[in-house]
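Why does residue order matter? Because the sequence determines the fold. Keep that principle in mind as you read this record.
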Amino acid sequence: MSGVGDLVNLRDAVVARLRTKIPGLRSIEPHGGTFDDGEVKKFATLAPAIRVACMGFDRVERHSSGMLRLPVHFAAVVVAKDAMQEGDKVGRDTAALLIANAVALAVAGHRFGLEGVFQPENLRGANEYSDASQNAGVALWQVTWTSPVLLGESLDEALGALTQLFVNGALFADPLPIGGDPLAGGAP
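Structure:
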């Protein structure tokens, strides 16, 4: 088993999954974190939309493969405003709740097509109602989860990489027997 590569790959895979499973939104994009009251007005102009943020990781452990096992915490922030659908008004609170529901269904049990990613854990949703969201005419929900991942190289891959050094695809150094002449490239 190999690792996920890096956390940007995982975040981008989450965004791609949500774009596929929740069509019809104005945008689904990566984001640097959760929203404060100052950002709500800016985000409101994009509704309906989702922003996905990698919020951090903790309890880093060494997996039996030698790779690091990280529980990576994600948040998908949903914003919606009042809208018309087939001639009927859909309130922003209802729209945001339905989008949050769709996010939960898209995330639950999914490894986002990447090797080294385990099924999400601790999937939760929270209504982020505030004076700022009310005044901006939007409803906010935050869906959070933890995706455990394997990161780095396995112990065998790391040891293999240490036995040879390649520079720009060409063998630069090959392991020599102790006492071998590195300039001659052979044994003593």
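The beta strands are 27-30, 49-57, 61-62, 68-81, 83-85, 88-90, 121-127, 138-151, 165-167, 170-173.
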